[in-house]
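ARCHIVE CARD
Drawer: 12
Card no.: 0347
Subject: one protein chain, sequence and derived structure
Cross-reference: see card 0346
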Amino acid sequence: MCTLEKRGNLFILTLTGDTKKDQEHRLSPTLISSIRAALAEARSQAVNGSVLITQSQGKFFSNGFDLRHAQAVGAKSGSAEAAKAELVRMVDLFRGVVADLLSLPMPTIAAVTGHAAAAGLILAMSHDYVMMTSSRGVMYMSELDIGMTLPDYFTALIRGKIGSAAARRELVLRSAKVGAEAAVKMGIVDSAHDSAEEVVETAMRMADELGKRRWSGEAYAGIRKALYPEVCGLLGLKDSTVMPSKL
């Protein structure tokens, strides 16, 4: 599922899997719950100067919602409607992950070393910084290809994070499979690197630099929420005013 490691003020959330299937890191209710538990633990231990890095094992960062799980629910009940209802439930559950990341009282970095598709791409984009390997993996919003509209908070996050209308059109209205260099040009990714190891090393260096600033986590989260009012409104995240402690 996932693990959370603490190294000083650095939290490293790793999506894990023992099998090739597990290493697609499809967002099932179980994995969503596991991620939220890890983020809650990081929040509870946060201090000024904390930073979170999210990474993954295998060839995928995350392959989106676990459609096979939804299909299995439908097959068990003998109802296609039950499968659709389970997918809707996963969409609703995943709102909590995006809300947790956007309100987390510390800078966040996604070290993307494999494919990030659909909700998996939204997971990456919910971080403050995204770094990606050029050697493998694409960013891909697959909803159009599978005949599904985007959840409202997906669209709001994409609008808030990607400034170019042309880039948004390419991503969601063409379902383009975007490599790392193109993702940088489109404003989806902050930097592209030659290998997975370089992605992680760069993320670690950035985390160290950010952590040294020892910013107030409460102020950081408040400013972040104010930057993305549309998606935060849909997620029920309220603005907060934080004043200097030494006034």
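Annotation on reverse: The chain is about 50% helix and 15% strand. The chain has one domain: 2-234.
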